[in-house]
Protein backbone atom coordinates (compact mmCIF):
# COMPACT_ATOMS: atom_id res chain seq x y z
CA UNK A 1 0.00 0.00 0.00
CA UNK A 2 1.36 3.42 -0.91
CA UNK A 3 2.12 5.95 1.84
CA UNK A 4 -0.19 8.93 2.22
CA UNK A 5 1.86 11.97 1.09
CA UNK A 6 2.79 14.78 3.45
CA UNK A 7 2.51 18.21 1.81
CA UNK A 8 4.71 21.17 2.85
CA UNK A 9 1.87 23.08 4.52
CA UNK A 10 0.77 19.91 6.38
CA UNK A 11 4.30 19.35 7.69
CA UNK A 12 4.39 22.99 8.85
CA UNK A 13 1.05 22.60 10.68
CA UNK A 14 2.10 19.39 12.44
CA UNK A 15 5.54 20.65 13.40
CA UNK A 16 4.11 23.95 14.71
CA UNK A 17 1.56 22.05 16.81
CA UNK A 18 4.22 19.74 18.28
CA UNK A 19 6.48 22.71 18.99
CA UNK A 20 3.76 24.80 20.63
CA UNK A 21 2.46 21.98 22.82
CA UNK A 22 5.66 20.06 23.65
CA UNK A 23 8.60 22.25 22.66
CA UNK A 24 9.76 19.52 20.29
CA UNK A 25 11.45 20.97 17.24
CA UNK A 26 10.74 18.91 14.12
CA UNK A 27 13.35 20.03 11.61
CA UNK A 28 13.01 19.42 7.87
CA UNK A 29 15.20 16.29 8.33
CA UNK A 30 12.40 14.77 10.46
CA UNK A 31 9.90 14.86 7.59
CA UNK A 32 10.36 11.21 6.66
CA UNK A 33 9.94 10.25 10.32
CA UNK A 34 6.57 12.05 10.48
CA UNK A 35 5.36 10.25 7.34
CA UNK A 36 6.52 6.87 8.59
CA UNK A 37 5.36 7.12 12.21
CA UNK A 38 1.90 8.54 11.46
CA UNK A 39 0.98 6.28 8.51
CA UNK A 40 -0.61 3.60 10.69
CA UNK A 41 -2.58 6.19 12.65
CA UNK A 42 -3.91 7.80 9.47
CA UNK A 43 -4.95 4.42 8.06
CA UNK A 44 -6.55 3.24 11.30
CA UNK A 45 -8.61 6.46 11.53
CA UNK A 46 -9.29 6.41 7.77
CA UNK A 47 -7.96 9.94 7.32
CA UNK A 48 -7.51 10.68 3.62
CA UNK A 49 -4.73 13.23 4.25
CA UNK A 50 -2.44 14.66 6.93
CA UNK A 51 -4.55 17.81 6.93
CA UNK A 52 -7.68 15.83 7.82
CA UNK A 53 -5.74 14.12 10.60
CA UNK A 54 -4.37 17.45 11.85
CA UNK A 55 -7.91 18.89 11.99
CA UNK A 56 -9.02 15.89 14.03
CA UNK A 57 -6.13 16.35 16.49
CA UNK A 58 -6.77 20.05 17.13
CA UNK A 59 -10.53 19.63 17.43
CA UNK A 60 -10.37 16.72 19.89
CA UNK A 61 -11.12 18.48 23.17
CA UNK A 62 -10.27 15.38 25.24
CA UNK A 63 -6.61 15.83 24.24
CA UNK A 64 -6.37 12.07 23.52
CA UNK A 65 -5.58 12.53 19.83
CA UNK A 66 -2.77 14.97 20.62
CA UNK A 67 -1.37 12.60 23.23
CA UNK A 68 -1.35 9.81 20.67
CA UNK A 69 0.39 12.02 18.11
CA UNK A 70 3.08 13.03 20.63
CA UNK A 71 3.57 9.36 21.50
CA UNK A 72 4.11 8.49 17.86
CA UNK A 73 6.50 11.36 17.16
CA UNK A 74 8.64 11.51 20.29
CA UNK A 75 11.88 9.57 20.47
CA UNK A 76 11.97 7.34 23.52
CA UNK A 77 15.32 5.65 23.04
CA UNK A 78 17.00 4.95 26.38
CA UNK A 79 18.88 2.19 28.22
CA UNK A 80 20.08 1.17 31.66
CA UNK A 81 23.35 2.76 32.84
CA UNK A 82 23.32 5.15 29.89
CA UNK A 83 26.25 7.57 30.28
CA UNK A 84 27.60 5.45 33.08
CA UNK A 85 30.03 8.15 34.35
CA UNK A 86 26.97 9.95 35.73
CA UNK A 87 26.19 7.05 38.02
CA UNK A 88 29.85 6.81 39.10
CA UNK A 89 29.66 10.51 39.93
CA UNK A 90 26.49 9.88 41.98
CA UNK A 91 28.24 7.17 44.03
CA UNK A 92 31.59 8.84 44.44
CA UNK A 93 30.73 12.54 44.75
CA UNK A 94 27.04 13.31 45.09
CA UNK A 95 25.95 10.81 47.74
CA UNK A 96 28.93 11.23 50.11
CA UNK A 97 28.58 15.07 49.93
CA UNK A 98 24.84 14.87 50.33
CA UNK A 99 24.97 12.57 53.33
CA UNK A 100 27.37 14.93 55.06
CA UNK A 101 25.06 17.90 54.40
CA UNK A 102 21.92 16.01 55.42
CA UNK A 103 23.56 14.95 58.67
CA UNK A 104 24.19 18.62 59.54
CA UNK A 105 20.57 19.42 58.69
CA UNK A 106 19.36 16.44 60.68
CA UNK A 107 17.48 15.21 57.62
CA UNK A 108 17.24 11.76 56.02
CA UNK A 109 15.33 12.76 52.94
CA UNK A 110 16.78 12.34 49.43
CA UNK A 111 14.93 13.51 46.33
CA UNK A 112 15.84 12.74 42.72
CA UNK A 113 13.98 13.62 39.53
CA UNK A 114 14.31 11.86 36.21
CA UNK A 115 12.78 14.46 33.85
CA UNK A 116 12.00 12.83 30.50
CA UNK A 117 12.35 9.32 31.94
CA UNK A 118 11.01 7.47 28.87
CA UNK A 119 10.49 3.77 29.72
CA UNK A 120 12.10 4.09 33.15
CA UNK A 121 15.65 2.79 32.71
CA UNK A 122 17.22 6.05 33.95
CA UNK A 123 15.15 6.18 37.14
CA UNK A 124 15.59 2.45 37.84
CA UNK A 125 19.36 2.77 37.34
CA UNK A 126 19.48 5.64 39.85
CA UNK A 127 17.39 3.57 42.29
CA UNK A 128 19.71 0.54 41.98
CA UNK A 129 22.78 2.74 42.47
CA UNK A 130 21.29 4.31 45.62
CA UNK A 131 20.22 0.97 47.00
CA UNK A 132 23.70 -0.43 46.38
CA UNK A 133 25.29 2.65 48.00
CA UNK A 134 23.29 1.95 51.16
CA UNK A 135 24.07 -1.80 51.01
CA UNK A 136 20.39 -2.43 50.27
CA UNK A 137 19.38 -1.14 53.70
CA UNK A 138 17.42 2.07 53.37
CA UNK A 139 15.65 1.75 56.70
CA UNK A 140 15.37 5.14 58.35
CA UNK A 141 15.86 6.90 55.01
CA UNK A 142 13.19 8.61 52.97
CA UNK A 143 14.38 8.20 49.38
CA UNK A 144 12.06 9.29 46.59
CA UNK A 145 12.63 9.29 42.87
CA UNK A 146 10.15 11.11 40.71
CA UNK A 147 10.18 10.02 37.07
CA UNK A 148 8.17 12.02 34.55
CA UNK A 149 7.53 11.96 30.83
CA UNK A 150 5.05 13.34 28.34
CA UNK A 151 4.52 9.95 26.69
CA UNK A 152 1.83 7.76 28.23
CA UNK A 153 3.07 4.69 26.37
CA UNK A 154 6.60 5.15 27.69
CA UNK A 155 5.24 5.64 31.22
CA UNK A 156 3.16 2.46 30.97
CA UNK A 157 6.28 0.48 30.10
CA UNK A 158 8.19 2.17 32.90
CA UNK A 159 5.51 1.35 35.48
CA UNK A 160 5.41 -2.30 34.42
CA UNK A 161 9.08 -2.72 35.43
CA UNK A 162 9.36 -5.45 32.80
CA UNK A 163 12.29 -5.60 30.41
CA UNK A 164 13.48 -8.02 27.75
CA UNK A 165 16.79 -9.94 27.90
CA UNK A 166 18.57 -7.63 25.47
CA UNK A 167 17.53 -4.53 27.44
CA UNK A 168 19.49 -5.80 30.43
CA UNK A 169 22.78 -6.01 28.56
CA UNK A 170 24.32 -2.78 29.92
CA UNK A 171 23.54 -3.66 33.54
CA UNK A 172 26.57 -4.89 35.54
CA UNK A 173 26.04 -8.61 36.30
CA UNK A 174 26.04 -8.07 40.09
CA UNK A 175 23.14 -5.61 39.76
CA UNK A 176 21.29 -7.88 37.36
CA UNK A 177 21.46 -10.74 39.83
CA UNK A 178 20.36 -8.64 42.76
CA UNK A 179 17.65 -6.53 41.24
CA UNK A 180 15.99 -8.60 38.49
CA UNK A 181 13.97 -11.79 38.47
CA UNK A 182 12.95 -13.81 35.40
CA UNK A 183 9.30 -13.37 34.64
CA UNK A 184 8.91 -15.72 31.71
CA UNK A 185 9.28 -15.56 27.92
CA UNK A 186 12.64 -13.80 27.99
CA UNK A 187 11.43 -10.97 30.20
CA UNK A 188 12.72 -9.83 33.57
CA UNK A 189 11.02 -7.87 36.29
CA UNK A 190 12.71 -5.31 38.48
CA UNK A 191 12.77 -5.94 42.23
CA UNK A 192 9.71 -4.49 44.02
CA UNK A 193 11.89 -2.61 46.55
CA UNK A 194 13.56 -0.77 43.65
CA UNK A 195 10.22 -0.11 41.97
CA UNK A 196 8.75 1.22 45.22
CA UNK A 197 11.33 4.01 45.33
CA UNK A 198 9.95 5.54 42.14
CA UNK A 199 6.83 7.51 41.36
CA UNK A 200 6.02 7.70 37.65
CA UNK A 201 3.94 10.65 36.54
CA UNK A 202 2.97 12.29 33.27
CA UNK A 203 4.36 15.81 33.00
CA UNK A 204 4.90 18.14 30.08
CA UNK A 205 8.19 19.93 30.68
CA UNK A 206 6.80 22.84 28.70
CA UNK A 207 4.38 23.72 31.50
CA UNK A 208 5.16 27.11 33.04
CA UNK A 209 5.51 25.56 36.48
CA UNK A 210 5.46 22.08 37.95
CA UNK A 211 3.28 20.73 40.76
CA UNK A 212 6.13 19.89 43.13
CA UNK A 213 6.15 20.63 46.83
CA UNK A 214 9.90 20.37 47.33
CA UNK A 215 13.22 20.69 45.54
CA UNK A 216 15.47 17.95 44.21
CA UNK A 217 19.02 17.07 45.19
CA UNK A 218 19.64 15.61 41.75
CA UNK A 219 17.85 16.21 38.45
CA UNK A 220 18.45 14.09 35.38
CA UNK A 221 17.25 15.83 32.23
CA UNK A 222 19.24 13.90 29.68
CA UNK A 223 18.69 13.62 25.95
CA UNK A 224 15.44 15.57 26.19
CA UNK A 225 16.51 19.18 25.51
CA UNK A 226 18.16 18.06 22.31
CA UNK A 227 14.70 18.07 20.71
CA UNK A 228 13.95 21.66 21.83
CA UNK A 229 15.07 24.90 20.22
CA UNK A 230 17.35 27.37 22.06
CA UNK A 231 14.62 29.60 23.49
CA UNK A 232 12.71 26.59 24.84
CA UNK A 233 15.89 25.08 26.31
CA UNK A 234 16.69 28.34 28.11
CA UNK A 235 13.24 28.48 29.72
CA UNK A 236 13.46 24.83 30.73
CA UNK A 237 16.91 25.28 32.29
CA UNK A 238 15.58 28.21 34.34
CA UNK A 239 12.73 26.02 35.62
CA UNK A 240 15.05 23.09 36.37
CA UNK A 241 17.30 25.50 38.27
CA UNK A 242 14.35 26.69 40.33
CA UNK A 243 13.55 23.09 41.36
CA UNK A 244 17.16 22.13 42.24
CA UNK A 245 18.23 22.22 45.90
CA UNK A 246 21.10 24.62 46.62
CA UNK A 247 24.31 22.64 45.90
CA UNK A 248 22.18 20.09 44.04
CA UNK A 249 23.16 18.69 40.66
CA UNK A 250 21.78 18.72 37.12
CA UNK A 251 22.81 15.98 34.71
CA UNK A 252 22.21 16.57 31.00
CA UNK A 253 22.98 14.38 27.98
CA UNK A 254 26.53 14.39 26.64
CA UNK A 255 25.43 16.00 23.40
CA UNK A 256 23.66 18.75 25.32
CA UNK A 257 25.37 21.76 26.83
CA UNK A 258 24.43 24.64 29.11
CA UNK A 259 27.35 26.82 28.00
CA UNK A 260 25.40 29.01 25.62
CA UNK A 261 22.84 29.89 28.26
CA UNK A 262 23.02 32.37 31.06
CA UNK A 263 22.69 29.98 33.91
CA UNK A 264 23.21 29.86 37.62
CA UNK A 265 24.65 26.34 37.43
CA UNK A 266 28.38 25.81 37.82
CA UNK A 267 30.07 23.49 35.33
CA UNK A 268 31.56 20.48 37.14
CA UNK A 269 32.48 18.04 34.38
CA UNK A 270 31.00 17.15 30.98
CA UNK A 271 27.19 17.09 31.25
CA UNK A 272 27.24 17.66 35.06
CA UNK A 273 26.32 20.99 36.64
CA UNK A 274 25.85 22.17 40.23
CA UNK A 275 23.48 24.83 41.54
CA UNK A 276 25.41 27.54 43.33
C1 LIG B 1 15.43 10.10 24.17
S1 LIG B 1 14.39 9.97 25.56
C2 LIG B 1 15.57 10.17 26.88
C3 LIG B 1 15.33 9.23 28.02
C4 LIG B 1 16.35 9.29 29.16
N1 LIG B 1 16.32 10.57 29.81
C5 LIG B 1 17.73 8.97 28.67
O1 LIG B 1 18.59 9.85 28.60
O2 LIG B 1 17.99 7.82 28.34
C6 LIG B 1 13.55 11.55 25.55
C7 LIG B 1 12.26 11.56 26.35
O3 LIG B 1 11.81 12.90 26.49
C8 LIG B 1 10.39 12.90 26.45
N2 LIG B 1 9.90 14.25 26.14
C9 LIG B 1 9.97 14.92 24.96
N3 LIG B 1 9.35 16.10 25.07
C10 LIG B 1 8.88 16.20 26.33
C11 LIG B 1 8.15 17.19 27.04
N4 LIG B 1 7.77 18.33 26.46
N5 LIG B 1 7.82 16.94 28.33
C12 LIG B 1 8.20 15.78 28.92
N6 LIG B 1 8.89 14.81 28.31
C13 LIG B 1 9.23 15.01 27.03
C14 LIG B 1 10.08 11.87 25.37
O4 LIG B 1 8.75 11.36 25.49
C15 LIG B 1 11.15 10.81 25.63
O5 LIG B 1 10.67 9.77 26.46
TrEMBL record:
<dbReference type="InterPro" id="IPR000780">
    <property type="entry name" value="CheR_MeTrfase"/>
</dbReference>
<dbReference type="InterPro" id="IPR036804">
    <property type="entry name" value="CheR_N_sf"/>
</dbReference>
<dbReference type="Pfam" id="PF03705">
    <property type="entry name" value="CheR_N"/>
</dbReference>
<dbReference type="InterPro" id="IPR050903">
    <property type="entry name" value="Bact_Chemotaxis_MeTrfase"/>
</dbReference>
<dbReference type="InterPro" id="IPR029063">
    <property type="entry name" value="SAM-dependent_MTases_sf"/>
</dbReference>
<keyword id="KW-0949">S-adenosyl-L-methionine</keyword>
<dbReference type="InterPro" id="IPR022641">
    <property type="entry name" value="CheR_N"/>
</dbReference>
<protein>
    <recommendedName>
        <fullName>protein-glutamate O-methyltransferase</fullName>
        <ecNumber>2.1.1.80</ecNumber>
    </recommendedName>
</protein>
<dbReference type="GO" id="GO:0008983">
    <property type="term" value="F:protein-glutamate O-methyltransferase activity"/>
</dbReference>
<keyword id="KW-0489">Methyltransferase</keyword>
<dbReference type="InterPro" id="IPR022642">
    <property type="entry name" value="CheR_C"/>
</dbReference>
<dbReference type="Pfam" id="PF01739">
    <property type="entry name" value="CheR"/>
</dbReference>
<dbReference type="GO" id="GO:0032259">
    <property type="term" value="P:methylation"/>
</dbReference>
<feature type="domain" description="CheR-type methyltransferase">
    <location>
        <begin position="1"/>
        <end position="276"/>
    </location>
</feature>
<dbReference type="InterPro" id="IPR026024">
    <property type="entry name" value="Chemotaxis_MeTrfase_CheR"/>
</dbReference>
<keyword id="KW-0808">Transferase</keyword>
